[in-house]
Amino acid sequence: DVKVTQSSRYLVKRTGEKVFLECVQDMDHENMFWYRQDPGLGLRLIYFSYDVKMKEKGDIPEGYSVSREKKERFSLILESASTNQTSMYLCASSQGLAGGEQYFGPGTRLTVT
Amino acid sequence: GQNIDQPTEMTATEGAIVQINCTYQTSGFNGLFWYQQHAGEAPTFLSYNVLDGLEEKGRFSSFLSRSKGYSYLLLKELQMKDSASYLCAVSHYGGATNKLIFGTGTLLAVQP
């Protein structure tokens, strides 16, 4: 059974803190994605990676960075958390250049106070 | 630019049929996905259309017209467990790989 896991379901951080969100997939997928999901705005792509150490900006990369040192792991980093980064963060993975179906993790509900 | 429109909310009755529409404008179109998302859970894949026409999978069917930039998801014999948000997503070539652009989702409420 395919699986994407995320390090935390719920996280509360203070403004200015550095935050790490971890995502691991066990399907040997080339592509991994980070989204945030907000009411009325849907899923928006933050960053994606198509290979180890390779990354590209999505639609809303400001305030975020990513790291992919191993194929199965993709980390999202908030360098200095702000209240407008309070959101649901979803990680996904997919196979090959064609992209195709994306498999999602359970999400991390991040609250920045 | 990319733009995807779908209704915000719909209500239907158990046992009935409901059609959720999605219209899109995008460059580099590479297929259209439908995902189901129950409250508090991750989206799960329902269907994929890359060619015009109807794809049927059990109680769920999805239709695509590329010339019209239009798709719909058809749910038959509705069950209470079908109450969820339905996300339309367009796949387009994003440089190194295909990326998905999501609509804001249609929240379907199935009533007894």
Account of the protein in words:
The complex is a heterodimer of chains A (about 110) and B (about 110). With about 110 residues, chain A is an all-beta fold. In chain A, about 0% of the residues lie in helices and about 55% in strands. In chain A, strands 2, 4, 5, 6, 9, 10 and 11 form a seven-stranded mixed sheet that branches. Chain A has a four-stranded antiparallel sheet with strand order 1-3-8-7, with no helix packed on it. In chain A, strand 4 and strand 5 form a beta hairpin. Chain A starts with a strand and ends with a strand. The relative contact order of chain A is 0.33. The mean pLDDT of chain A is about 95. Chain B is about 0% helix and about 60% strand. In chain B, strands 2, 4, 5, 9, 10 and 11 form a six-stranded mixed sheet that branches. In chain B, strands 1-3-8-7-6 form a five-stranded antiparallel sheet, with no helix packed on it. The mean pLDDT of chain B is about 95. The chains are: A mainly beta (about 110), B mainly beta (about 110). Chains A and B meet through strand 4, strand 5 and strand 10 of A and strand 5, strand 9 and strand 10 of B.
The whole-angstrom Rg of chain A is: 13 Å
Rg of chain B, Cα atoms, Å? 14 Å
What's the SSE pattern of chain B?
Answer: EEEEEEEEEEE
Q: Identify the quaternary structure here.
A: heterodimer
What's the gist of this structure?
The complex is a heterodimer of chains A (113) and B (112). Chain A is an all-beta fold and 113 residues long.
Give the secondary structure arrangement, pairings included:
The complex is a heterodimer of chains A (113) and B (112).
Chain A: E1 4-6, E2 10-13, E3 19-25, E4 31-38, E5 42-51, E6 54-57, E7 64-70, E8 73-78, E9 87-94, E10 103-104, E11 108-112
Parallel strand pairs in A: 2-11
Antiparallel strand pairs in A: 1-3, 3-8, 4-5, 4-9, 5-6, 7-8, 9-10, 9-11
Chain B: E1 3-5, E2 9-13, E3 18-25, E4 29-37, E5 44-49, E6 53-57, E7 60-65, E8 70-75, E9 84-93, E10 98-102, E11 106-111
Parallel strand pairs in B: 2-11
Antiparallel strand pairs in B: 1-3, 3-8, 4-5, 4-9, 6-7, 7-8, 9-10, 9-11
